[in-house]
Each structure stands twice: as C-alpha cells, then as structure tokens.
Design goal:
2 domains, Rossmann fold, six-stranded mixed sheet, alpha/beta, 28% strand, Thrombin, subunit H
Length: 238
C-alpha cells in the first residue's frame, strides 16, 4: 500500500460526477488523484505535476482524449501511460493502441477492471515483463518462424511495438508464443500475451500485448525502443 500511496493518477472527463466516482475508488485503493475536465487542462496539469498514469475519456470539449494522448506521446514516448475510457464508437481499439494508449476500458466497466488497469499501468514495464509465464495449459501456443525481425516487418507479418506486437494469426485469447528467427540479433521471442484486438480483413491480424517475456527478448526490446524512439504500443500495421 505504501508504494501505491506515492502514485498519482490524473482523471480526465468532462463530467464531474464521473471524475468524482473514479477518484473515490482510486483513493480507496491507496492512490492519489488529480482531475481535469478536458484534454487541454489535463495537458497543463501533466506539465507541472508528477503523473504516474492517466485515465481519460475520449469525447470532451476543448481537447479530447486522442489529442491529449498525442501531446503526451510527443513529449515522451512512454510516460505517463494512458488508459482510455470509451464506448468504442469514438475510436477503433487497434487505433487506440497504435496511437500509444496502454489500455482501453469499454464503457460501462466495473471499478475492479479500472483498478486492475491502473495497477498495471503504474508498474515498471520491465518488472511486469519479468513475471513468470502463466502456467495455463489451455492457452493456445502461437508458434511461427521468420527469416528475421526486419524481414517479417517489411512483409507485414510481425511488427513489434513498445508493449506488444501485431501478427498474422487466428488466435483470439490469452496465448503463449514462441516466435523464432533464422538470423539477426533476436533469435527467439517466447512468453505469454493477451490478444487486445482482432482485424479479420484483409487477412486476419491480431494485436497482442506482452504479458511476460524471456530475458533475451526483454533486453532486445529495451535497446530497440531506446534507439527507435516513439513507436506504437501495439502496431496495427507495418
């Protein structure tokens, strides 16, 4: 609890009642909260306060959630992490992750779902990726082999992002994966993940968020992200 008490969450919504409800639940869980009624004010707050995560609506007057996300990602590729609250008519899920959102909460949602998302957002990425792969024997094994990471990306069959990857596949759940490469620095990507979106045409593609990763892949991605700069959280295309 002491660690959570130091974390500050920025709640962004144009409805005061919604902000109050979210703040009450987050504070009860041990978080500190700040509030903003649109993206413009939220960006100003994020510029002068230490913010550990942002939970934002999308449709708001004078600066919507998408504009806020783009402004925050222009300032820094990965912090503070942003979760969207949406009715899914505002933006396609794959677009939200491609723009850099770390999570998407579909309205209406349970407060427990909100807390799970926030708990994940404030946790250091490398620490989360180091968690043991869940021993779920029912989870399908996604297995694939490519010439190299670069070749797979050019062909549009596998593209890494800051927090996951897009791949040609028909899986649609939590998965374990083993992706092998014949050449290049990264020779294998093994771990577990959660399918965050599915695009059926043209040709089925899935967006998978990393849940756990083996040390080799963690080190590769850490170096690649630092060298590449701003990239999608989960790419929707090559």
């Amino acid at each position: 609890m002491g660690e959570i008490l130091r974390k500050q969450i920025l709640i962004v919504d144009d409805e005061a009642e919604i902000r109050e409800i979210l703040a009450v639940h987050l504070q009860a869980a041990g978080y500190r909260t700040l509030e903003a009624h649109n993206g413009l004010i939220a960006h100003e707050v994020a510029g002068r306060e230490s913010i550990d995560a942002v939970v934002s609506d999308i449709r708001m007057p004078r600066g919507d959630g998408i504009e806020l996300l783009q402004q925050l990602r222009a300032r820094h590729a990965d912090t503070p992490p942003v979760a969207f609250m949406t009715g899914f008519s505002d933006i396609a899920i794959e677009d939200a992750y491609h723009l850099g959102a770390r999570a998407v909460l579909g309205k209406p949602f349970e407060m427990e779902a909100l807390l799970q998302v926030v708990n994940r957002l404030v946790r250091p990425r490398d620490e989360s990726w180091a968690d043991p792969t869940p021993s779920d024997s029912d989870a399908p094994l996604l297995s694939a082999a490519f010439r190299s990471v670069e070749k797979a990306g050019i062909e549009g069959n596998l593209v890494f992002g800051r927090g996951g990857f897009m791949m040609a596949s028909r899986v649609a759940s939590r998965v374990r994966y083993e992706i092998l490469f014949e050449e290049g620095r990264l020779r294998a990507c093994r771990g577990s993940g959660i399918v965050r979106w599915v695009r059926k045409a043209p040709g089925q593609r899935v967006g998978i968020e990393f849940e756990s990763l083996e040390p080799e892949t963690r080190e590769y991605l850490r170096t690649w992200i630092a060298r590449t700069g701003p990239v999608p959280f989960i790419p929707k295309q090559a």
